[in-house]
Amino acid sequence: MLRPPAPEAGAGGTGLGRARGAAPSAPEPDAPDDADPGTTLPTRLGQVDRDGRWTHDAGRAEMNAQVYSRALVSPDVCGDDYADCDGWVDHTLSRAHTSFTATVGVDDTSSASETVTFTVYADDESLITETVRLGETIDLDVDVTDVLRLRLEVEPGDDSVYPVWAEPTLTG
């Protein structure tokens, strides 16, 4: 279940942050479901298999002081009772797409001392693995031509790190 954004207490900032341990908020009401014609968000495909606590919700996140209105974010259960937010989710692409792009990082409310590793698999083959920490983002562009199953995996180094796949898009 998604919650509205929680303003950061005493931060004097934009109010777009969230309290530590709270899930990023739902997308803005006027945010489009798909960024451009010919593109699809992975959340439109549905999840066909998963493992771990990280199952990703569609929502809004702030990484490196930039707000992303379309993001795959940590669910409410992550960070509760010191629970790591690790796991993976599979999506069926039906060999209908040619590329997967996203900006990966951690939500700005994450611990500054920990990292998270993001891995993209295509039909059980690792295509790319990147590790980031607070204040870092990495743009991914992965060839998924003729891929049946896409797996998105996160492995945080601690329970106070909230992984984000921002602007995740399938083209083709």
Defining traits:
172 residues; mainly beta; Jelly Rolls; six-stranded antiparallel β-sheet; five-stranded antiparallel β-sheet; 11 strands; 44% strand; globular
CATH H level, superfamily name: NPCBM/NEW2 domain
CATH class division: Mainly Beta
Radius of gyration: 15 Å
Order of helices and strands: EEEEEEEEEEE
How many domain modules?
A: 1
Shape: globular
Find the count of extended strands (DSSP E, 2+ residues).
Answer: 11
The overall pLDDT, averaged over residues, is 75
Strand content: 35-45%
CATH topology call: Jelly Rolls
Note poorly predicted spans: 1-34
Overall SS class: mainly beta
CATH architecture: Sandwich
Distance between the termini: 31 Å
Largest sheet, in brief, is: 6 strands, antiparallel
**Tally of separate helices:** 0
- What percentage of residues falls in helices of 4 or more residues? under 10%
Can you walk me through this structure?
This protein is mainly beta. It has one domain (47-171): Jelly Rolls, CATH 2.60.120.1060. The protein has no helices and 11 strands. Strands 1, 3, 4, 6, 9 and 11 form a 6-stranded antiparallel β-sheet that branches. The chain has a 5-stranded antiparallel β-sheet with strand order 2-5-10-7-8, with no helix packed on it. It is globular.
Quick structural overview:
Helix content is 0%, strand content 44%. It contains no helices and eleven strands. The strands form two sheets. Strands 1, 3, 4, 6, 9 and 11 form a six-stranded antiparallel sheet that branches. A five-stranded antiparallel sheet has the order 2-5-10-7-8, with no helix packed on it.
